[in-house]
Amino acid sequence: MNTISPPTGKQQLVGKFLAMQSPLELLQRLPVRNFKTHSQKIEHGDVFVCRQGLTWDSHLSVDDAIKRGAVAVIANRPLDVDIPCIVTPSHSSSISLINQFYQYPQDTIKHIGVTGTNGKTTVAYCLNSLFNQETPSAYTGTLGSYFGDAHFPLDNTTPDAITLLNLFHRMQQNDITHHVMEVSSHALSQDRVSIVDFDAVLITNIGTDHLDYHKSREDYIQAKLRLIDRLKPNGVAVINLDDDLAAAMIERCRSRARVVTFSHQNENADLVASKLKASCEGGEYEVRYQHHKCHVKTNLPFMFNIEKTLAMLAMMVALEAPLGVAVSRLSTLKPAPGRCEVYRLPNQARAIIDYAHNQDSLSNLLMNVRQHSHKGRIYTVIGVTGDRLGDAAEIGKLCSLHSDHVFFTTDNPLGVCQDALFAALTSQVEGNNATVVYDRALCIKKAVSCLAEGDVLLLCGKGHETHQYISSNKNEASPYIGDLAALMSASKQNVWHGEHQRETGEQHIPQPESTEDQQ
């Protein structure tokens, strides 16, 4: 049962608040701006929502929230504060109260959920662009939340339920009809999307990732499959028939959802691509759906993006768009920010900015670049985040093997000693084709100085991000100019030496004495 803890101190409104009949009525009489769960992000007019978490009890942060302008508190125990305090029995009860306050804004929007080990950002962001050509649509994911002319940065790929309710309320006010959301395995495991019933879901693929959190691949797989469980009755699931786990995905849909499959290998799929051609500039293929065939051209480079565009087309037709209309819209797509963005540099080298950061995505990117870069060398700039220390050795080895030269640099250490991350990255490097540069912008400058005509520079891991998480506290991001700005700055300086030069701040990795030393 929800209760109201009256304000204390010198306020004169105690009697008025005590006379309120319900917590909902109290909220309705307050000038509520937003609901926030982090005291450091409170602004004047916000309501602070407390929660007893695994590592921190935010009830202890209520004084900080009040100093920053909170007009009320929703807590799970009585608090002695000088502003209205609504006490609910649990955090889920607090979410239900906020949902009632907003009058269930998510119910007025058609939700499309996208998950997968790789590709979900590109697919979700670009799907939103496709929907926006016809109807007001919104995107929520790694890049933040976009709708109308607004952009809201987010801490996580998939926000918590309270942040989502704030966004859904704003979307409703902006007459948004469709919402495409990236749904991470963490969010599914933690029930962050429990307030959303999806009209359609799309699983790009299921590889292996985030085992630091999920502990086993099976746990990771089951977390991904939970997105299907969030479908509305008679919803639709779009499945990649080329994925090894496609059968498990389809089985999960049984008696729950209509299934639309896509493939470029299996003729039994509903949507089949053939005659595939891809390059650094884009791709093209033929697609068949039911009795219709179309020629598809896309500005997204490389073969793995053909699979992503096929997933987008499958979702469009699953939601009853004519194939020809979907293909026509697709031809105008641009890459998502920081996702396989190709830049031609003044000396006719190319730079590709991509978020690739795990073994699957890096291997895919490197293989495709090598296939389409016959004349030039490949240079790679890469780091690993602090929570991927266990993957660092294999990532370092992969990038070293498939690059002419690899530059290891910083990428969100998250409190882990950067020297330990570099030691792991270089532990299985054979040969003398690796350089360590601590400062990421300087690292990009050094990499650019190596480039000659026909070469390709891969800037991996950060994508669109303009911050570094040096400590484990994600509320304390350190500013970083971003890979694109660093690239533009370096190219304007015209540093086209063509030969790698040693400068202050870099370390060459010596060749190991034997392979056995690296085991």
Give the rounded overall mean pLDDT. 88
Q: Any idea what the CATH superfamily of the largest domain is called?
A: Mur-like, catalytic domain
- Number of helical elements: 17
Oligomer: single chain
How many strands appear in the DSSP assignment?
A: 25
Largest sheet properties? 11 strands, mixed
Strand content bin: 15-25%
| Structural class computed from helices and strand pairing | alpha/beta
The CATH topology name of the largest domain reads UDP-N-acetylmuramoyl-L-alanine:D-glutamate ligase
Helical proportion, percent range: 25-40%
CATH structural class of the largest domain: Alpha Beta
Overall number of structural domains: 3
CATH architecture of the largest domain, please? Answer: 3-Layer(aba) Sandwich
- Residue ranges: pLDDT <50 for 5 or more in a row? 9-19, 494-519
Order of strands across the main sheet: 9-8-7-10-6-11-12-13-14-15-16
Would you write up a description of this structure?
The structure is a single chain. This protein is α/β, with parallel strands linked by helices and 519 residues long. The protein has 3 domains: 3-102, MurE/MurF, N-terminal domain (Udp-n-acetylmuramoylalanyl-d-glutamate--2,6- Diaminopimelate Ligase, Chain: A, domain 1); 105-330, Mur-like, catalytic domain (UDP-N-acetylmuramoyl-L-alanine:D-glutamate ligase), CATH 3.40.1190.10; 341-518, Mur ligase, C-terminal domain (Protein-Tyrosine Phosphatase, Chain A, Alpha-Beta Complex), CATH 3.90.190.20. The chain is 31% helix and 23% strand. The chain contains 17 helices and 25 strands. The chain has an 11-stranded mixed sheet, sandwiched between helices. The protein has a 7-stranded mixed sheet with strand order 17-18-22-19-20-21-25, with helices on both faces. Strand 3, helix 3 (62-67) and strand 4 (72-75) form a beta-alpha-beta unit. Helix 2 crosses helix 4 and helix 14 (392-402) packs across helix 15. It is globular. The protein starts with a strand and ends in an 11-residue tail after the last strand. 47% of the residues are buried. Residues 9-19 and 494-519 have low confidence and may be disordered.
